[in-house]
Amino acid sequence: MDQKDVFRQMVSFNKQTFENTFNALVMLQDQSEALFNGMLDRATWVPEDGKKAVGDWAKSYKKNREEFRKAVNDGFKKLEEFGTKPFSTEKA
């Protein structure tokens, strides 16, 4: 098997592993948020400003989570591009 093929398979495997793990964490976080929001809605003693702060925190968290996903995917894209370039055995 060619070195480039092995490299591409390794990158593909790692990319898929990241996506699967990331998606599982997203589901866990979304479920936790829904549970927390349900408890927060029933907590009449929590002021509206506190509820708004939690909502803003969740929005910020989701935004940063997607930025992280984009950064990792950009890294995988660069690795894939690197894997398509021919390897040079010449010494500089």
Describe the secondary structure blueprint for this structure.
Blueprint: H1 3-42, H2 48-84
Helix pairs in contact: 1-2
Describe this protein with a few key phrases.
mainly alpha, single chain, 92 residues
Walkthrough of the structure:
- By secondary structure, the protein is mostly helical.
- It has one domain.
- Helix content is 84%, strand content 0%.
- It contains two helices and no strands.
- The protein is elongated.
- The two termini are 27 Å apart.
Query: How far is it from the N-terminal to the C-terminal residue, by CA?
Result: 27 Å
Largest sheet: none
Structural category is mainly alpha
Give the CA-based shape: elongated
Portion in beta strands: under 5%
Helical coverage, percent range = over 70%
Topology pattern, helix = H, strand = E: HH
- Number of strand segments: 0
Q: Helix segment count?
A: 2
Mean pLDDT: 90
This entry's quaternary arrangement is single chain
**Number of discrete domains:** 1
Rg is: 21 Å
| Unreliable residue stretches | none
